[in-house]
């Protein structure tokens, strides 16, 4: 069954069209990676799926429900940003529980879910710290933890590792892969990093100027890019 369905989705800012009719089906539990040059619309597309940006045209379906007009908190998706976007004045525990608190969950239920996510991400010992007391990798783990606690059907990642140094990026990449194996939920992941795309993706979507250039599994794209543009992203390591 499809977890996500995009039908002729478009986005216009003022008079400028930046997303030109995207059609895509994402299967339940699939790990889909969006790649493409800066400005091609990756973040805009994710933000539309997340409900952080209006959909100008077309339809978006999540879990069999048309959600064009459904507000972000009710879509069953969670987004992890490049910049972590943690609240500096809240502890790790409070950051991770924040969304549940907004949804008026009971404190004991919030505590249980936060503890569970903290265990998954090895954050147990850091729960009472503030973001400024954490390393970059730990902060990103908290941001992922905050996304996990709501038990979303769909995870959206917007270049989550690009602020980390190379070594940590490799480590976190493995953690995200293992997280996906355990949670078995649908993931849509934007990256500039070709190796990240190749290792994480069930399927890669190559975007160019707000359009899909090619979709395929990493091996297919690597072996049979439709054109030079795709080959530049997938074929030849830079
Ligand atoms: P990417 O994430 O692939 O780098 P974006 O989705 O951020 O690309 O941007 C796609 C295009 O939309 C760019 O041309 C960008 O300038 C434009 N854009 C993004 N957000 C806005 C906005 N809020 N207002 C106007 N233009 C925007
Ligand atoms: Mg972006």
Question: How is this structure best described in words?
Answer:
The chain has 8 helices and 10 strands. It is an alpha/beta fold and 238 residues long. The strands form 2 sheets. It has a 6-stranded mixed beta sheet, with helices on both faces. A 4-stranded antiparallel beta sheet has the order 2-1-4-5, covered by helices on one side. The mean pLDDT is 92. Residues 13, 18, 36, 38-44 line the site of adenosine-5'-diphosphate (ADP).
The oligomeric state is single chain
Helix content: 25-40%
Shape: globular
Q: What is the rounded Rg? A: 18 Å
Write out the distinct hetero groups bound to the structure. Answer: adenosine-5'-diphosphate, magnesium ion
Total DSSP helices: 8
Largest sheet: 6 strands, mixed
Mean pLDDT equals 92
The tally of beta strands, per DSSP, is 10
Percent strand equals: 25-35%
- Poorly predicted parts: none
Task: Kindly name the structural category.
Answer: alpha/beta
Order of helices and strands: EEEHEEEHHHEHEHEEHH
Distance between the termini: 36 Å
Strand line-up of the largest beta sheet: 6-7-8-3-9-10
């Amino acid at each position: 069954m499809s977890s996500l369905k995009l039908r002729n989705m478009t986005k216009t800012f003022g008079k400028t069209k930046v997303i030109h009719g995207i059609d895509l089906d994402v299967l339940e539990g699939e790990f889909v990676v969006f790649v493409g040059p800066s400005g091609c619309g990756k973040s805009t597309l994710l933000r539309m799926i997340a409900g952080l940006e209006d959909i100008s045209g077309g339809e978006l379906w999540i879990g069999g429900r048309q959600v064009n007009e459904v507000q972000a908190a009710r879509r069953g998706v969670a987004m992890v940003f490049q910049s972590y976007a943690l609240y500096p004045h809240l502890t790790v525990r409070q950051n991770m529980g924040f969304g549940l608190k907004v949804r008026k969950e009971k404190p004991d239920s919030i505590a249980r879910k936060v503890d569970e996510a903290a265990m998954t991400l090895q954050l147990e010992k850091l729960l009472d710290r503030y973001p400024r007391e954490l390393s970059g990798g730990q902060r990103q783990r908290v941001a992922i933890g905050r996304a996990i606690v709501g038990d979303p059907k769909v995870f959206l990642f917007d270049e989550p590792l690009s602020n980390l140094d190379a070594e940590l990026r490799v480590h976190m990449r493995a953690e995200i892969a293992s997280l996906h194996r355990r949670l078995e939920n649908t993931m849509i992941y934007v990256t500039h990093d070709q190796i990240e795309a190749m290792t994480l993706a069930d399927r890669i979507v190559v975007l160019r100027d707000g359009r899909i250039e090619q979709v395929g599994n990493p091996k297919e794209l690597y072996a049979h890019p439709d054109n030079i543009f795709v080959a530049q992203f997938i074929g030849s390591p830079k």
